[in-house]
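Design review, sub-item: ligand-bound model
Attendees: FS, YL, KQ
YL presented the inputs for the flavin-adenine dinucleotide complex:
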Amino acid sequence: MSERKKLVVIGNGMAGCRAVEELLARAPDIYDITIFGAEPEVNYNRIMLSPVLAGETTFDEIIINGRDWYDENGIALRAGEEVIAIDPAGRQVLTDKGERTGYDRLLIATGSMPFIIPVPGAALDGVIAFRDIADVRRMTAAAGKGGRAVVIGGGLLGLEAANGLRTNGMDVTVIHLTDTLMERQLDEAAGFLLRRELESRGIEVLTGASTEEILGENVVEGVKLKDGRVVPAGLVVMAAGIRPNISLAQKAGLECNRGILVDDFMQTSDPCIMAVGECVEHRGQVYGLVAPIWDMCRAAADTLAAVDSDGYGGSVTSTKLKVTGVDVFSAGDFAPGDDRDDIVYRDAARGIYKRIVIFDDRIIGAVLYGDTQDGNWYFQLLKDAEDISESRETLIFGPAFAGGATADPNAAVAALADTGEICGCNGICKGEIVGAIHEKGLTSLAEVRAHTKASASCGSCTGLVEQLLSLTLGDTYNPAAVEQVCGCTELGHDDVRRLIKAKELKTIPEVMQELEWKTPDGCAKCRPALNYYLVCDWPEEYADDYQSRFINERVHANIQKDGTYSIVPRMWGGMTSSTELRAIADVVDKFDIPAVKVTGGQRIDMLGIRKEDLPAVWADLGKAGFVSGHAYAKGLRTVKTCVGTDWCRFGTQDSTGLGVRIEKFMWGSWTPAKVKMAVSGCPRNCAEATCKDVGIICVDSGFEIHFAGAAGLEIQGTEKLGLVATEEDALEHVVALVQMYREQARYLERIYKWAKRVGYNEIRRQIMEDGERRRAYFDRFVFSQKFAQVDPWSERVSGKDKHEFRPMADIGFPRAAE
Amino acid sequence: MRNWIEIGNLSDIPLRGARCLETPAGRIAVFRTAADEVYAIEDRCPHKGGPLSQGIVHGTGVTCPLHNWVMSLETGEALGADEGAVRTFDLKRDGDRIFIDAAATAVAAAE
Ligand code: SRM
Ligand SMILES: Cc1cc2nc3c(=O)[nH]c(=O)nc-3n(C[C@H](O)[C@H](O)[C@H](O)COP(=O)(O)OP(=O)(O)OC[C@H]3O[C@@H](n4cnc5c(N)ncnc54)[C@H](O)[C@@H]3O)c2cc1C
Ligand code: SF4
Ligand code: FES
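KQ shared the predicted structure:
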């Protein structure tokens, strides 16, 4: 076997890693690969920094390739190590750590540098750019202190920064040089609509404003404009543009203009050195978007793998703004001119504006605001330079009308060619998605995301992917069954949960207003779900809406088929005593309770109690020390135990004690669906821990934690989470696991379903391996328990919700006293 | 002339909630919607007799707590695919005070 060649990549960003992915797909074995990255991170999706800043997603979720990818492919990742010189003659690179690494082929993917406008004060503390995750962390930290932020630059990046800072609670002013926001992508009309929308979100926009100076001693205090105005600010974000990062290449003597010059095969002027991404200039163009980068990376991989290809022929680009709730699309050229025709459509009431620019019977530009559904269709016509003279009359109404067809929601996607791009973030075209749906038998959005990455990043193409699913699968695709919360909304549970956090929605009416519910006050499906999400996300602030709870949770007892109720008091870990049993016996006699039963959950059920009697029954039980067993709750039910070391000759640990401890720690918490646990003292497993939501098997060396079992409608043994040494550890892991479930699952989704959906390994990674995260989950659970651990029975004995247990009036009865 | 019996105040009923009236003919559920309208219907689901007063109130409907039929508070009829109806009773409001048509309960009583 011939020796592998050495490939060195400078830049662990979007282009560098994508090029390596493409190379591995073509030829996994010809290079030993080393990637240098100045950032101390793995490969993440830079364009998703905006949603991270806006709190709509987390850094972990935007990682494209984690450590395991580098390991599995034998790639040496040198993260946090900057290349400071290239020696083309000696074919090696030198890093800031003083290390030299030789190469046979070098790939430069150093991206861009934010352009810092050279005004006095630009170097002050508190002036930052918006380029990498470190910048986002700086911004969120600054936002924590509140106050005003100034964003210099009203382009795509600046506006996404402004929106993100605003959602973080800061007052925000955008300073923009020209009169129209995003003037390179939008015309005046769309710029106006965008400005109005941003202003309605509380973002101040100053157009025609030029920065003269940034004020402050050491730390930024404000921004002074050329016209004399001063805007006070504790944070200034420079988003005034980017410049290709070419200094390394220049010093190495490679030919550069605005960017590093490359040919169609991504070769620079040195035959051993290639370049891709924002740092290059190709046929006179430099790019600042990912779509062209994906094409460059394919060409570069072909070259590296010595695959015959036509190379890269340049790209036409389109832009979308990633501000949730604002739909903006722009492509091509839309400067006015006598030789061009405009087709314009406006709907003032709905805030929609569409403009198509036509030259020589072809679309050369498109600007859409408010309704961007047809954007990809126009973009494809533009890229293909399609003759549109035939459909010109109806063009503005989109593909649904083109050719006289009746309005079909899927028409836009149906009309797209196989090469038509669907997911701009990941460069996935229609053909790839349809192919994957057929070949892999995909039936849901989640599966398409997992297998193709389409719609897995910014999510703005989610609608298109769903349309493709329904187009490809016909009636067998039922997005409603998979996705929507209920008929009151188009949104699925995950989107609702995400938006509740991102937009800080803290009441049910607020959620319904902001997320455009279709019914005035929801239904019996969505209201309990929303109530749970709000209880979980804002434990301190949210006032539980009892009218949105199912009757059992509202009155803390189980309704029976005849309208009476059953109640189950807690018997911690299944332990009881003569006093407790006597109190139960007394209550049964006193209130004439028709049935008493030992449940499958190691405690006692009293059935057939009249609703009016409940408070009095609870009062008596309360005196004996009983609290509610939440046998009715989407919450912690039982922790079954066995007799453990206390009595059993095989017991290895105090399973009873641990079960009681967990139950006492966790009772009262609300969860997406019921949670049942068990602790067995040895692998004989008498408490049946391996079919519970969470189970613990005690062994000599410690505690084996299990999760995601099922023994009701479905039967399924648990998965093993891991082994821990002490009771403390066991408690921490179990609590963290449940909190992760509380924060992520969809309402009514049991742990086993949620775990299957997010992946057992992902849960193991977050709970077993990432100690910091585990403790953060644990702490959030403990915090929420401060508000949840109140015995609902004793509350009602003291008079809460009196109205529930008494009729409003008795009428028509003869009065005895009369 | 109709004879109205006072049954209580609007504020006795939780918003999007219900209270019961005990009458010799059976239980009547009095609902208060989000828009502060009040309705009275028989507290017996046409499906299997579930106590409708214990359901979740939304719009001008209520979802039965036993098997999720949705009943219209305005017409007393089951909405959606289910078929069935409950009796409705006229209510009158004078400011905060709520009255029920005595005839309704009398008829009920006569049954
Ligand atoms: C009382 C009890 C049966 C008994 O007499 O032993 C019981 C009674 C009910 N179960 Fe259960 N389940 C009882 C143990 C179980 C168990 C066994 C266990 O907990 O170890 C299971 C299997 C494990 C599991 O949870 O999956 C069980 C699986 C179910 C299911 C199926 C859940 C699933 O997702 O697969 C339902 C239906 C549901 O929740 O939607 C259910 C629902 C019900 C309901 C609440 C039905 C209802 O909605 O009205 C019953 C309430 C009766 C009442 O009014 O008290 N019950 N139920 C047990 C109470 C345990 C306790 O002390 O809290
Ligand atoms: C907030 C934000 C939002 C965006 N939104 C969109 C969008 O919606 N749509 C879109 O198409 N595009 C968007 N972009 C642009 C897109 O992210 C870039 O086009 C893309 O990241 C460029 O890829 P790249 O690999 O060329 O550069 P980068 O992704 O920046 O990668 C370059 C990497 O090289 C490293 N590096 C540089 N010099 C060295 C050195 N000497 N040694 C070692 N490592 C070095 C850098 O640290 C960096 O990690 C956005 C960008 C930002 C910042
Ligand atoms: S198995 Fe559970 S849900 Fe079914 S009848 Fe018995 S108690 Fe009720
Ligand atoms: S009794 Fe009302 S739905 Fe069955």
